[in-house]
Amino acid sequence: MILVWLIVVLMVGGLLAWLSQRWSERLPRWIALAVVLIDFILTLWMWGDNLGMADANSPWLIRLERPWIPQFGVSLSFALDGLSLLMLLLTFFLGLLAVLISWREITSRVGFFHFNLLWVLAGITGVFLTMDLFLFYFFWEVMLIPMYFLIGIWGHANRNYAAYKFFLFTQASGLLMLLAILGLYFLHGNATGIYTFGYFGLLDTPMTIQAERLVMFGFLAAFLVKLPVVPFHSWLPDAHSEAPTAGSVILAGLLLKTGAYGLLRFVLPLFPIAAQEFAPWGMLLGVVGILYGAMLAYSQTDLKRLVAYTSVSHMGFVVLGVFAFNAWALQGVVMQMITHGLSTGALFIISGFLYQRLHTRDINRMGGFWAPAPRMGVIALVFVMASLGLPGLGNFIAEFLTLVGAWQANPTLTVLAACGLVLATAYSLWLMQRVFLGPVQPSILLPDLNPREMLIAVPLVLLILWLGLNPQPILNTAQPAINQQLKAYQAPPTAPQVAGQQATLPVASADSLALRKL
Predict the structure, then answer these.
(1) Is the pLDDT of residue 456 over 60?
(2) In whole angstroms, what is the distance from residue 14 CA to residue 12 CA?
(3) Strand locations in 70-154, DSSP E?
(4) Residues 244, 154: contact at Cβ < 8 Å?
(5) How far apart are alpha carbons 86 and 471 in whole angstroms?
(6) Are 383 and 460 a contacting pair, CB within 8 Å?
(7) FRET partner for 474 with CA separation of 20 to 30 A, picked from 44, 47, 64, 68?
């Protein structure tokens, strides 16, 4: 039941935060902080308690199955493996930072703000835990509506336009996924006589290749828009630039990861044949996103839009790795999901700190900030270097593993993707030069980070360093789940093994052995 409580605590806490505003404007902040901290501590306890207990044959650490609407095949099905556990740790850590960031920034309708913030986190948590496709779609919508309010009420000047655009893109693609879920439900029922929305029951559903393609593209529509993948990315820069800082952190660090998680959890295992057919196109879309996002990032003068386009570029590595179909690439995808959440979230936090002080995001009006704010400059330098993939920081491990795995699938596209690292170096150094170095702006008095802001920034720095210097705990946690996802792509033996003849390891198993030596 602990998996259900992770969601219930957030939802109840959101209601309490909303209602408590009538007594005090500070009370919602403390309630939100306490609620997210409770979930974070519980998730850390589960990680420590289950670390190393899963294996390749049974990656699931916790499972909960309860009938809910049995006549329609709907159940309360929740499960936790290494992949979802890592995503929960990222969710609650960034959730804590989002509450702390909003402590001084949000001054109106504080209770309703924290209600929406906690319900967004509840929806994301449900997406990472539920194994019933009916419930999955429910939580997919739960995280959408509160984010619409976060952008539309507490955003900047063009917040209404950005909120509507975000809602239309994600809602339209989500409805296509709903149709695909219903299609899979009826295909499985017609083939087996059992109508169910359960993930484990829907695995290996008998269907024609034409039906598999159609159903898979319904899921792809929702996940590729949420990542986002070019050309479905245009909602992202507007949403990021107009959202409050906490909204940008949640959007970049968590909501985009639900799209990547959906590809790993649903598209690969449920549609193995159609996914392999789509793989060359998926890798091509990933490379286009890497190069296109990097070039657009270099051309921006709005600081938040620049960071938003870096997300488009970095998420291209996720798509590239997912459709490479080997353990190296998928380990890189998991690392990229975590490190991108930390590094890009940190860059949005830095841009929020600057906006609070300058009331502008125009890079042309910045410069020379290192001298008056050296602490901010050092922290910004760490995450700018992480964004360009400096060895010793977590992003390097993610991109290295992804490119090594992608090389085994398509060397040409891997070379093009590697060119994106050169472009990342260009826009990252350009950002650092224009904002923190160069000529000093004499008319601007820029205070350095205060203790609350240092409390937000320093853990991010320590985590990105730890992931770069010691990634093995993360790789070990994710490995059983990744091996499970690749089982559908391991060719079964064609003949009994002859006595004395050495068996050939499947690709995923060989990669897993190599990862143990990493």
Answers:
(1) yes
(2) 5
(3) 74-80
(4) yes
(5) 13
(6) yes
(7) 64
Looking at residue 491, the DSSP 8-state letter turns out to be P
pLDDT, average across residues 200-223: 92
Beta bridge mates, 362: 302
**Residue 342, pLDDT score:** 95
CA 368 to chain centroid:
33
Instruction: Specify the amino acid at residue 421.
Output: L
- What's the distance, Cα to Cα, between the start and end of the chain in Å? 36
pLDDT, tens digit, for every residue of 387-421?
999 999 999 999 999 999 999 999 999 999 999 99
Q: What is the CA radius of gyration of the chain?
A: 22
CA 344 to chain centre: 11
57-73 confidence digits (pLDDT tens): 678 888 899 989 888 98
CA atoms within 13 A on the CB side of 304: 28
**What token pair was written down for 309?**
């386009």
Tally of CA atoms within 13 A in the half-sphere of 171 that contains its CB: 12
- Per the DSSP assignment, residues forming a β-bridge with 75 are 67
The residue type of 236 is L
What is d(CA 130, CA 136) in angstroms, rounded to the nearest whole number? 6
Per-residue H/E/C for 175-192:
HHHHHHHHHHHHHHHHHH
